[in-house]
Write a structure and sequence with these properties.
This protein is an all-alpha fold. It is built from 20 helices and no strands.
Amino acid sequence: IVGTADYVVFAVMLLVSAAVGVYYAWADRGQRSSSDFLTGGRRLTALPVSLSLTASFMSAITVLSNPAEVYRYGANIVFYGVSYVITMVVTSEVFLPVFYRLAITSTYEYLELRFSRATRLLGTVLFIVQTILYTGIVIYAPALALNQVTGMDLWGAVISTGLVCTFYCTMGGLRAVVWTDVFQLSVMLAGFLSVIIRSVDQQGGVIPIISDSEQGGRLNFWDFDPNPLRRHTFWTISIGGTFVWSSIYGINQAQVQRYISCKSISQARLSLYINLLGLLFILLCSVFAGMCLYSVYKHCDPWTAGLVSAPDQLMPYLVMDILRDYPGLPGLFVAAAYSGSLSTVSSSINALATVTVEDLLRPYTSMSEKQLSWMSKGMTLLYGVLCIGMAGLASLLGGILQAAISIFGIIGGPLLGLFTLGIICPFANSKGALTGLLSGLVLSLWVGIGAQFYPPPPVMARPLSLTTEGCNLSTAGNLTWTSTTPGQTQMVLLADSWYSLSYLYFSLIGTIIAVVVGVLVSLLTGRLQWICFK
């Protein structure tokens, strides 16, 4: 159970985050406009923005779920690196120039300029729903995992992180969010490194950890099976992952708002590429942490042995196991997981306030800039409270990494398709855009909800073997997974429906359907108008 020193470390992390908000509220007290509050006056430089971009979507889900993923399914999630690289190139060459040159505050303004006000409103509403759902998971999931292993008070932690986050977002606006992200990213890295360094020390070096992982089948990099029903292969992770991450970096308000707050387009591009290095470094840390986890527990799996009740608790369990003799270090890891939450929630709250003010208030009211600036702060506060409420609902949802990516895939995919249609198809019209967006959304929801009711069989997920032979427990059983022959796989495939599609492809389906339907409807309606006009 965590001690006093650990609570002190955790409290310091919260206090520093709050202090940054107070500092920027004081420094920017002369702000007159809402866009100053929401975009930092567009005078930020590449370095803090890039670190903030990295921190925003590297949440506690990365800190807790990625290592558990490697422990159970192997290190092939390292191929996310491929999707990160493609995503940054696409974002900096396709989406960034359009948003930056239009000098818009909300990405959804583009939809009205390009299509119609109805398209903008629908896009805005979908973004708000997606973000509130995701934020609830991000606040609740780490709290649950840490509470069950470390004994930290569950709702105390949820409410304290939620309140601190809402406080600095409301006080300091985007500049506070960016600089707290920079601090929180360094806490996340320190937490990861403390676990990795102690594990390497305990296991006798890096080489034993790698060889344990190899013997346990964790280094399963060469899986090029093209079957789209397989949960994780090179193709699902690199191609499916590219669509998920493009919907985040290319068009998600939380990310776009950051790079358009840079003082020049070259600084904005640079921020994306520095952020790529940060993403790759954190990915490697989380994959190696998963290998450490396996190396330590290769003979006694705490999950099968009933010492933890969910895979997301494996990482906190390891921390309490190997760092308990070092006062403050378990607290540093807890702070790292919560820093991940704070950085994601703060960017989400800030982005929600922005789209509400820019897309739902400014076009329909005649408020002055000063009133809109106060409304921005009010909205930030409101969404902060709403996200804490959503954390209560998230307590009813299952596996966190998959839940989070599924939400982004189901709603983010069709939205990505809508923006792509607008940017690359000059002939696309608002009828095509709306029909495409709705078709993509209906299909993604159908597949996504179907997958919740009909989960894919183990053959498609392929969990690797875990054992409890080395445990000195009376209840120790042995859980091993055996490989199937191609014939068996074929039978399962035929019996199984397309609901078993890898969750990483939800985004791809939504994007492609939105673009294809959008193009067809635009061509048909455009042609009809042309014929009638003639």
